């Protein structure tokens, strides 16, 4: 019943579109019977493919069932686990309600992503271990073996729970030694759990346009499953390397935990660990180890950069495995309070108040959980119909001329455009490809099979991407959201959210560039995005949708500035600031200050440089240099100019950012 009610609540908020980050890639790959980004998520993608065949609502909504259903079961598993440990049904219900009301848990229960299934496996394995410890029934070992295999075909973060199970096995080594007769059956069930890996080579041979790492070969399969392109033992391509950066990751973990569970929840968790240490010492060490390795120690290892709102969104989703464990401990904390109050009432309080005190604790606990749930649900009002991510994908596609070739980098632009093009069938004349993969000969073969009209470079060529663009640019207008690689005799020119590749002999005038940009920009959905779900609550993982709009204003402003159109550049920078993106705001302020300095708008230039300094993610020396110029050339304040020039020299020596590269 707990799971059913949870499912109905989550279902009522389930999104009809894809979410931020990887959601678009996962849903599109499932729909096309393809292979998503490493490690491939074979169990999720195979189940997703079956769900996309259901005649229900949107494709993203169908795949979203792989979030709402596992998270509904996860709520039920917290209820069962707490009841198994404490024997208290009401306490178990409070703990499960608190979990359902947790913002992150709710978010990833209503959007199409892989984390709900990860949470389910986390709790299912813990429930099996706890049940075997308490009841000593071999059936739980069998279930544990099967679930372990299945979990490995889904998300590799599950491996961080291994130390907890090894420690539990060591603590119970005598009892475990009596279960050796079950090992062959357990190994068989574990192997059966790995069967979803078969999906990867089957899907890779299908050659859908979403087909990472050419996993139909042994080498490609290994590269995919081991996440070779990211670094097998790295959690992300960007990470902190110093001890300070890693310790900051742990600090951020507890700050997030405090935000998501409040002081009340944190206090209950501490009491819960104390109660476990007193009453269930083996489970205390087991659950504490699981918590540490999926929470603080994981973040010490991963060391995610925490710079922008979107990077916070990437950081926070990996909190979930430890959060579901915390929910179990929270239930033990309520039990500890009840038992303590019961003990006090026998000695210090009149017996007639004992029932009243107990009832007050239950009322407080349920009120806390329900208030969390209501508060969280309000943040998702309008999510099912929200089109924030759809608008970005549509705007990218509408920028491209008929029969265009669109080459994209970056998760949000790429995955959202792919979903709109290959699932929703928006702009079927446009070919959307992942630019980085075009340097891979196997990916080019996949492209050829999906789009036989395209010309391929020689597979042993040195510059596959440039050669590919050069061979196809006459037949297809070429667009990209980056401008760093191009065939000789061509130039990337900003066009709306993208760059268009032009022959140098056919470059448009700057007036033509600005006129066309205004026309394209007028058809974008930025106002709808800013008035959508992000207006009601700043969901970190969705904020990346704003960045392409901001960076397009930044790049066009730079182009205008470099060619002397200073007033126009100032307007583009101002438009970029109004987007509301935090990733490029400091750089936009810097460029705005440079333009205003050139226009002799001295107070405004000073203000822009100080704003750049305030909004920067690191102390950028170039801002001090420009402030020195402002005070020396604009305000004739040589003392302040010398002060900031000295600061610039000091800071430049630490980071060595060549000024000539600005």
TrEMBL record:
<feature type="transmembrane region" description="Helical">
    <location>
        <begin position="283"/>
        <end position="302"/>
    </location>
</feature>
<protein>
    <recommendedName>
        <fullName>DUF2723 domain-containing protein</fullName>
    </recommendedName>
</protein>
<feature type="transmembrane region" description="Helical">
    <location>
        <begin position="154"/>
        <end position="172"/>
    </location>
</feature>
<dbReference type="InterPro" id="IPR011990">
    <property type="entry name" value="TPR-like_helical_dom_sf"/>
</dbReference>
<keyword id="KW-0812">Transmembrane</keyword>
<feature type="transmembrane region" description="Helical">
    <location>
        <begin position="252"/>
        <end position="276"/>
    </location>
</feature>
<dbReference type="Pfam" id="PF11028">
    <property type="entry name" value="TMEM260-like"/>
</dbReference>
<feature type="transmembrane region" description="Helical">
    <location>
        <begin position="184"/>
        <end position="204"/>
    </location>
</feature>
<feature type="transmembrane region" description="Helical">
    <location>
        <begin position="356"/>
        <end position="378"/>
    </location>
</feature>
<feature type="transmembrane region" description="Helical">
    <location>
        <begin position="103"/>
        <end position="134"/>
    </location>
</feature>
<keyword id="KW-1133">Transmembrane helix</keyword>
<feature type="transmembrane region" description="Helical">
    <location>
        <begin position="322"/>
        <end position="344"/>
    </location>
</feature>
<keyword id="KW-0732">Signal</keyword>
<dbReference type="InterPro" id="IPR021280">
    <property type="entry name" value="TMEM260-like"/>
</dbReference>
<feature type="transmembrane region" description="Helical">
    <location>
        <begin position="59"/>
        <end position="82"/>
    </location>
</feature>
<dbReference type="InterPro" id="IPR052724">
    <property type="entry name" value="GT117_domain-containing"/>
</dbReference>
<feature type="signal peptide">
    <location>
        <begin position="1"/>
        <end position="17"/>
    </location>
</feature>
<keyword id="KW-0472">Membrane</keyword>
């Amino acid at each position: 019943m707990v799971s059913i009610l949870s499912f109905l609540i989550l279902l009522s908020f389930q999104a009809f579109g894809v979410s931020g980050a990887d959601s678009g890639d996962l849903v599109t790959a499932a729909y096309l019977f393809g292979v998503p980004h490493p490690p491939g998520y074979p169990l999720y993608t195979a189940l997703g493919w079956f769900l996309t065949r259901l005649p229900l609502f949107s494709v993203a909504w169908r795949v979203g069932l792989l979030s709402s259903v596992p998270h509904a079961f996860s709520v039920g598993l917290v209820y069962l686990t707490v009841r198994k440990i404490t024997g208290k049904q009401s306490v178990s219900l409070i703990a499960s309600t608190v979990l359902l009301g947790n913002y992150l848990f709710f978010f990833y229960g209503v959007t199409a992503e892989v984390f709900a299934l990860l949470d389910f496996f986390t709790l299912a394995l813990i429930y099996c271990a706890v049940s075997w410890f308490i009841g000593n029934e071999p059936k739980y070992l069998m279930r544990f073996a099967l679930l372990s295999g299945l979990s490995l075909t889904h998300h590799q973060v599950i491996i961080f729970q291994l130390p907890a199970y090894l420690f539990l096995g060591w603590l119970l080594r005598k009892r475990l030694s009596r279960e050796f007769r079950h090992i062959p059956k357990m190994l068989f069930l574990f192997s059966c759990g790995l069967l979803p890996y078969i999906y990867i080579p089957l899907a890779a041979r299908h050659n859908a346009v979403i087909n990472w790492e050419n996993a139909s070969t042994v080498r490609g399969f290994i590269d995919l499953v081991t996440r070779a392109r990211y670094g097998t033992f790295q959690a992300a391509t960007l990470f902190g390397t110093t001890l300070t950066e890693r310790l900051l990751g742990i600090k951020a973990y507890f700050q997030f935990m405090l935000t998501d569970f409040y002081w009340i929840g944190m206090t209950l968790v501490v009491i819960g660990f104390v109660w476990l240490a007193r009453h269930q010492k083996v489970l205390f060490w087991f659950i504490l180890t699981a918590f540490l390795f999926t929470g603080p120690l994981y973040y010490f290892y991963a060391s995610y950069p925490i710079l922008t709102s979107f990077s916070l969104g990437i950081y926070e989703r990996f909190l979930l495995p430890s959060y579901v464990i915390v929910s179990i401990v929270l239930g033990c904390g309520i039990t500890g309070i009840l038992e303590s109050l019961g003990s006090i009432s026998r000695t210090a309080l009149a017996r007639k108040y004992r029932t009243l005190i107990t009832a007050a604790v239950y009322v407080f606990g349920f009120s806390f959980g329900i208030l969390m749930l209501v508060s969280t649900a309000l943040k998702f009002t309008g999510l099912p119909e929200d089109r924030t991510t759809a608008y970005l994908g549509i705007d990218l596609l509408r920028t491209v001329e008929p029969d265009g070739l669109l080459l994209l980098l970056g998760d949000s632009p790429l995955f959202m455009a792919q979903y709109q093009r290959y699932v929703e069938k928006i702009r079927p004349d446009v070919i959307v490809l992942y630019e980085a993969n075009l340097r891979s000969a196997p990916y080019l073969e996949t492209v050829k099979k999906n789009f036989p009209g395209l010309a391929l470079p020689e597979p042993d060529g040195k510059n596959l991407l440039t050669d590919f663009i050069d061979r196809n640019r006459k037949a297809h207008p070429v667009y990209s959201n980056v401008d760093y690689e191009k065939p000789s005799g061509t130039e990337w020119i900003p066009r709306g959210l993208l760059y268009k590749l032009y022959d140098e002999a056919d470059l448009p005038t700057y007036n033509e560039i600005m006129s066309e940009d205004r026309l394209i920009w007028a058809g974008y959905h930025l106002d709808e995005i800013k008035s959508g779900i992000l207006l009601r609550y700043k969901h970190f993982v969705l904020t990346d949708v704003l960045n392409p709009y901001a960076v397009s204003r930044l790049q066009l402003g730079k182009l205008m500035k470099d060619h002397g159109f200073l007033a126009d550049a100032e307007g583009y920078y101002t438009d970029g600031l109004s987007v509301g993106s935090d990733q490029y705001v400091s750089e936009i302020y810097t460029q705005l200050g440079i333009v205003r300095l050139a226009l002799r708008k001295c107070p405004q230039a000073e203000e822009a440089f100080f704003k750049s300094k305030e909004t920067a993610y690191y102390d950028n020396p170039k801002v001090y240099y420009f402030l020195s110029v402002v005070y020396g050339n604009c305000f004739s304040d040589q003392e302040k100019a010398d002060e900031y020039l000295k600061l610039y020299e000091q800071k430049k020596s630490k980071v060595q950012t060549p000024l000539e590269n600005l």
